[in-house]
TrEMBL record:
Mode of membrane association: Multi-pass membrane protein
Name used for this protein in its record: Proline-specific permease ProY
Protein's cellular compartments: Cell membrane
Positions of the Amino acid permease/ SLC12A domain: 37-465
Record organism: Streptomyces violaceoruber
């Protein structure tokens, strides 16, 4: 048999009395080690939002973008600590979909699972298309061919073993980390030694000399928050790995606790260095600040380096999408909220049907994008931002309700309690609400909210039909234990 041979029985295996979503009953293999989990956690917070999207944010906010990343980074840490508390209570691959089902309602678990699945399918479509576009920098090859090759390779890797997925993410993340650290070191050299074309004008005072720290006022800074939060999407992916981590009780808290220094170094540190070497007014939307900084320093090779890094970031995102979509679909199916075919695992403990279904949709999306690259596709792509933040909202509400029940003695306390909760969780929820308001005000970001009501209606109708056909779909994890 091949590695993709399906073990029909694994879908139902588990210790007596266990809920299908618990770690012991999921049937996955714990093949992700500490090294891989750490790099998945690091890489999840570094993507094209930083390498490409920061140019538009700098143009809007100037140096005050640094403050926006600091505040948003603090909120992300609150979200991740809330997720960590839930993971140590019950480390499951379904993660926040499972928690929404248990602590809010089965309907919200259904919505969260399918919304997060859609988020990664849409993200996979856009990123594999972007990766194909980046390839044209070096070779004049058809975009569809590159997209097809990338999708097939990543699909195959995700059906060999979870360890191979972890290795790919490790090296994808290593490239991104190395690129940012290299940029920081080069900028530090320019500031201290004064080499390169920017040596004579590079100074820390560039952070406030050109129109002040808030050159476009507080409003300009607030209007960048949706861009900043978009850059952090996928940081929660580490929660989906819980069911396949070798030692989740030890590894996951360590990975989550690295969030502050990751944001401090890779976002805040990199921006401070770049904006000190090159005045903020030099950067324009649509141009990577990394590429522009290399150009201003007279290092022409920078464009090729950044193109390789964003290619890596796009492939990393596609790889993560392949991984997470299959797990989320299987979690929904195990809870009676998705087709039972998605429960099937390969001999290696991999969700074959769910991953294949998602990969097929990604290929269809690439073809649609190639044939009709119009406004309709843009609306669908923009939906990724709001759907990603929905997962964060569910994490926070679930943690607030879990903490209330644990403090009342109704559930065991987590070994990794979120500091300052539930107040920090409420603060994070209010912050996300403010970001959504900013998105509604901003004409460029407003389209992200257009598809949400339609998607909500589709899910509501689907859930009602599901309830009529499958009564177990409305049960909570506590009901099935």
């Amino acid at each position: 048999m091949t590695s993709a041979h399906v073990d029909e029985g694994q879908a139902d295996k588990g210790r007596p009395g266990e809920h299908a979503g618990d770690a012991g009953a999921e049937g996955y293999q714990r093949g992700l080690g500490a090294r891989q989990i750490q790099m998945i956690a690091i890489g999840g917070a570094i993507g094209t939002g930083l390498f490409l999207g920061a140019g538009k944010a700098i143009d809007r906010a100037g140096p005050s973008l640094i403050l926006a990343y600091v505040i948003a980074g603090l909120v992300i840490f609150f979200i991740m600590r809330a997720l960590g508390e839930l993971l140590m209570y019950r480390p499951v691959s379904g993660s926040f979909s499972e928690y929404a089902r248990e602590f809010i309602s089965p309907f919200f678990g259904f919505v969260t699972g399918w919304t997060y699945w859609l988020f990664w399918v849409v993200t996979g479509i856009t990123e594999v298309t972007a990766a194909a576009t980046y390839m044209t920098y070096w070779w004049d090859i058809p975009q569809w061919l590159s997209a097809l090759v990338f999708t097939v390779i990543l699909y195959g890797a995700n059906l060999i073993s979870v360890k191979l997925f972890g290795e790919l993410e490790f090296w994808f993340s290593m490239v991104k980390v190395t690129a940012i650290l290299g940029m920081i070191l080069i900028c530090a050299g320019v500031l201290t030694v004064g080499f390169s074309d920017a040596g004579d004008t590079a100074t820390v005072s560039n952070l406030w000399n050109d129109g002040g720290f808030f050159p476009n006022g507080i409003t300009g800074t607030l209007m960048t928050l949706q861009i900043v939060m978009f850059a952090f999407l996928a940081v929660e992916l580490v929660g989906v790995t819980a069911g396949e981590s070798k030692d989740p009780k030890t590894v996951l808290p360590k990975a989550i606790n690295t969030v502050p220094w990751r944001i401090a170094v890779f976002y805040v540190g990199a921006l401070i260095m770049i904006l000190s070497v090159v005045p903020w007014s030099t950067f324009k939307p649509g141009v990577s600040p990394f590429v522009k900084a290399f150009e201003e320093m007279g290092l022409g090779i920078g464009a090729a380096i950044v193109n390789f890094v964003v290619l890596t970031a796009a492939l990393s995102s596609c790889n993560s999408g392949m991984y997470s979509t299959g797990r989320m679909l299987r979690d929904l199916a195990l809870n009676g909220q998705g087709p039972r075919a998605f429960t099937k695992l390969t001999k290696n403990g991999l969700p074959l049907v769910g991953t294949t279904f998602s990969a097929a949709l990604m290929l269809v999306g690439v073809w649609i994008n190639y044939q009709w690259p119009g406004d309709a596709f843009t609306y669908v792509v923009s939906f990724a931002t709001i759907s990603g933040m929905w997962a964060w909202i569910m994490i926070l509400i679930s943690q607030i309700r879990y903490r209330r029940m644990a403090d009342a003695g109704m559930l065991p306390q987590s070994s990794f309690r979120a500091p300052g909760a539930p107040y920090t969780s409420w603060f994070a929820l209010l912050f996300i609400g403010m970001v959504i308001v900013m998105m509604a005000i901003d004409a460029d970001a407003r389209i992200s909210l257009y598809c949400a009501p339609l998607w909500a209606l589709v899910l509501f109708v689907s859930y009602r039909v599901l309830q009529a056909r499958t009564p177990d779909a409305g049960k909570t994890p506590a009901d099935t234990r």
